[in-house]
């Protein structure tokens, strides 16, 4: 609630500054997206706490929900970084469009620089996704392997 009030406060104080209004709106959208992801994560955790009748179905559902939880962890970081890039582009749209204006003498260099920055930002987002995924696998992989081993043990014919 404090974030929402702060966002509306920034909108009121920035009523004469369009960039500040854009920034406040984008930050509020980013908070909503992260809030939805955290809410979904809590739902998955609540589902994981529910006990099923059979051990086999319990382990199978626990493994699938655990994998879903790991994917959601990965998406939180990626979505946050993408939203941050969108915020910067929305707030500084006039400057970016002016920089990429074909009327400049060094327009080719400007486009090359913008493409280089775009590729760099994309590489940073991809690298953070892969590093985060490896970290989650390292952190939670052993537990997931134990659950899968228990499931295989139940599936094995006696």
Sum this structure up briefly:
With 158 residues, the protein is an all-alpha fold. 87% of the residues lie in helices and 0% in strands. The termini are far apart.
First-last Cα distance: 56 Å
Percentage of residues in DSSP E strands? under 5%
Shape: elongated
Helix/strand order, N-terminal first: HHHHH
Average pLDDT works out at 79
Rg estimate, integer Å: 23 Å
Number of helices: 5
Low-pLDDT runs of 5+ residues are: none
**Computed structural class:** mainly alpha
Counting copies of identical and different chains, the oligomeric state is single chain
Helix content: over 70%
Description:
The chain is an all-alpha fold and 158 residues long. It has 5 helices and no strands. It has helices spanning 2-13, 18-49, 55-91, 93-99, 107-155. α1 (2-13) runs antiparallel to α2 (18-49) and α2 (18-49) packs antiparallel against α3 (55-91). It is elongated. The N and C termini lie far apart (56 Å).
């Amino acid at each position: 609630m404090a974030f929402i009030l702060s966002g509306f406060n920034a909108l009121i104080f920035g009523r004469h500054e369009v960039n500040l209004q854009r920034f406040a709106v984008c930050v509020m959208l980013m908070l909503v997206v992260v809030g939805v992801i955290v809410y979904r994560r809590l739902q998955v955790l609540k589902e994981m706490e529910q006990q099923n009748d059979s051990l086999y179905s319990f382990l199978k559902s626990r493994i699938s929900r655990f994998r879903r939880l790991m994917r959601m962890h990965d998406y939180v970081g990626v979505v946050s970084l993408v939203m941050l890039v969108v915020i910067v582009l929305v707030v500084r749209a006039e400057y970016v469009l002016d920089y990429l204006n074909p009327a400049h003498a060094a327009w080719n260099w400007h486009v090359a620089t913008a493409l280089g920055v775009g590729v760099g930002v994309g590489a940073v987002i991809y690298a953070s996704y892969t590093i985060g995924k490896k970290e989650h696998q390292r952190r939670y992989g052993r537990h997931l392997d134990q659950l899968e081993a228990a499931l295989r043990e139940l599936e094995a014919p006696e």
